[in-house]
Amino acid sequence: MARKSRSIELTQVVEWNDGKSNRVEDYLSAEEPLEMRAGRRSLGVTLRTPGNDEELTAGFLFSEGILSDREDLEALRLPDQNAPERNVVRVILANGVRATTGSVTRRFSAGSACGVCGKASISQLRRRGLRCPDSNVHFDPEILCQLPPKLRETQAVFGRTGGLHAAAIFTSEGDLLVLREDVGRHNAVDKVIGWAFLNERLPLSSQILLVSGRGGFEIVQKAISAGVPLLASVSAPSSLAVQLARELGLTLVGFLRGRRFVIYSGEKRLTSVPASVATP
Description:
- The structure is a single chain.
- This protein starts with 7 loop residues before the first strand and ends in a 15-residue tail after the last strand.
- By secondary structure, it is of the alpha/beta class.
- It has eight helices and twelve strands.
- The chain has two domains: 32-113, Ubiquitin-like (UB roll); 141-269, 3-Layer(aba) Sandwich (Cytidine Deaminase, domain 2).
- A hairpin with a 2-residue loop joins strand 1 and strand 2 (20-29).
């Protein structure tokens, strides 16, 4: 049975418009804590928009390196929505899989919208053995320009609240595979990666990941962990995100708006882009 979504809340507000005030109803993006527990151990708490909690949990555990493939996860159990622990996901790992990574506490102590920084973080990713995305796949720049409108058209909750980030996976032909929304941009990315993980569609070696916010370091890390060859955002990446993308061979696109975008790394995957584009 499908679980009822709690992603939107209704409230009353006072709207001021051209000198006149009226009390009206307004929609808010819901924000609630989510705790992930493996046995008696808490993996941490994050603030998220309720909905797709199984995908959020699976995507986070995979991108943090706790899970390597679908067989590592035995089950995810969510309580009844009216239960006292309705915001707790029980993670049952397969025999031999242990949540020993120290990055769990780091990520959650920072909050749902905060990334990590520092060169030590890149060194940690190297030790995880993350591979460069497939270098033989190519994308049409014209297809990229079509993606932001498709993202906005499919953002159902954003359309009612105006207050959510979105992440979406598209095929190389521009077909939408999955879109998820959340108050935290990293949570939205975890949800789409979790969808791919639970449906055994990883690695995403020929797909495009599009995010509605900026392309930060942690989003680049998640894209690479999922095997994504091209990450695009409608805003700017951070300096550390660009550094990581260049070191690990990810095509990173920013400011994807209308018929313009900026390529920060991996321009060879885009057809009709001159090979002489400089990488400072």
